[in-house]
Amino acid sequence: MKRHRTRFSGAFIALVAAAAFLSAASVHAQTAEGSSASSQPEITFTSWTGPYMRSQMLGFVRPYEEENAVRIHVDHYNGGIDEIRNQVESANVIWDVVDLTQADSLRACKEGLLEDLSGIALPNGADGAASGDDFVPGALNDCGVGVIVWATAFAYSNSEFADNPPTTIADFFDTDAYPGARAIRDDPSVIMEWALMADGVARKDVYPMLETEEGVAQAFAKMDEIRSGLQVWQAGREPVRMLNSGDVTMSMIWATTGVTASQEEGADFTVNMDGRVIELDLFGIPKGSRYKSQAIEFIRYASSTKALADMVSHLPNGPTRKSSLALLSDATLNQIPNGPAYEDKQFIRSDAEWWAENHARLEEQFDIWMSAGARQGAAGTVR
Fold it and tell me: How confident is the model at residue 343, as a pLDDT?
């Protein structure tokens, strides 16, 4: 009986040993699999949310994932460079590629918050054009690669102004001829350029005027004309709701958001491109990204001729590559803010370098002016 128990104990020990071996083999296999997966890290792409992010998901994020058998983690933010600064200064960089406005790209680059991309090798255009010649002016800088050309325009209520629609940016400030509340974005850019243009300042003189105290005072004096009932917004769809609900009769609006929303069922507004301010967005890599090389590969793909054209086909921003234009439908070409449909309308190109230097100064004065009574809308920046 004693020997029998001994044989059983030996068999049990053998079984335990075999189980341990199999478990170790399984752990080793899982570890090896994990090592293989870690060679394809899940980079984080951060952009603006809403229809704009959707256009990027369909235009290049999902196709990149499918073609390269990887996952891209997508995050969103409200613009600016504060979060990038916080990540870099705390050595806790969790974003790998960020969609930045041109002014923010330049500011962040100057502060040393972005990786140097000046030597990045980008694919040539689909038409054979060298990449350096294919991108529109301003779309390439030491820390950025262009994504879109976009614009801020104004929209007006169809029901309020059916018989006498506004035609120029000066009409945005004319509350006698076009009564009713206005809405603007909670930022000094665009509205200050508009104010001077509406007051008769030539486009070439707008930024030199804003360099002076007299020019800033002139802009605010013009803005006083729309102070009554003024509302401000941050989310790109918010002016759509304000216009459709009748809360305002005119609003500043992101052009592509406005054009697409104006075609929705029940929409009661029209977008006017006169006086539009044209700007750019660029990709950037926060300084200290753990996956810089993978981020660069993603940027190369996302900024190619086809990827930019595919993105724009889902939301009519302008592509930053000239070669992408040939891939767009006539319908899309007629909607993009830098397209041929609006060549007869007055516009101004935002001076991103100027705003990078002067935004903080004018933002402080703008906030003081705004504190006199504008009503702020819901937060969250959506394009």
Answer: 76
Tokens of 259: 């054009």
**In the chain, what's the furthest Cα-to-Cα distance?**
110
φ and ψ of 129, to 5 deg? -65, 140
Find the helix or strand (DSSP H, E) in which 2 lies: helix 2-38
Apex 66 CA angle, 64 and 72, nearest 5: 55
pTM for the full predicted model: 0.79
In the predicted model, what is the mean pLDDT of residues 103-124? 95
DSSP for 140-205 reads EETTEEEEEEEEEEEEEETTTSSSS---SHHHHT-TTTS-S-EEEESSSTTHHHHHHHHTT--GGG
User: What local confidence, expressed as pLDDT, does residue 337 receive?
Assistant: 86
Would you state the torsion angle of the CA atoms of residues 40, 46, 47, 51, taken in this order, to the nearest 10 degrees? 60
> What SS3 class is residue 319?
strand
Q: Which pLDDT band, with edges at 50, 70 and 90, does 346 fall under?
A: confident
DSSP for 59-113, written as a single string: IIIHHHHHHHT---EEEE--SSSHHHHHHHHTT----SEEEEEHHHHHHHHHTT-
Nearest to 248 by CA among 375, 382, 380: 375
Contact between residue 285 and residue 295 where contact means Cβ atoms under 8 Å apart: yes
What percent of the chain is predicted at pLDDT more than 90? 77
More confident residue, 208 or 235: 208
Contacts of 81 (CB under 8 A, 6+ apart): 100, 104, 107, 108, 111, 113
| Interval 268-306: pLDDT, tens | 999 999 999 999 999 999 999 999 999 999 999 999 999
How, if at all, do strands 231-233 and 269-284 pair?
unpaired
Task: At 105, list the tokens.
Answer: 């790209």
SS (H, E, C) 16-34: HHHHHHHHHHHHHHHHHHH
153 vs 221: CA distance, rounded Å: 21
Which of 366, 190, 357, 358 lies closest to 279, judged by CA?
Answer: 190
Distance of CA 236 to the CA centre of its chain: 11
Q: What integer pLDDT is reported at residue 25 of this predicted model?
A: 45
For residue 383, how far is the Cα from the chain centroid?
7
Give every CB contact of residue 336 below 8 A, 6+ residues apart in sequence.
149, 256, 312, 316, 317, 318, 319, 328
Of 1 and 94, more confident: 94
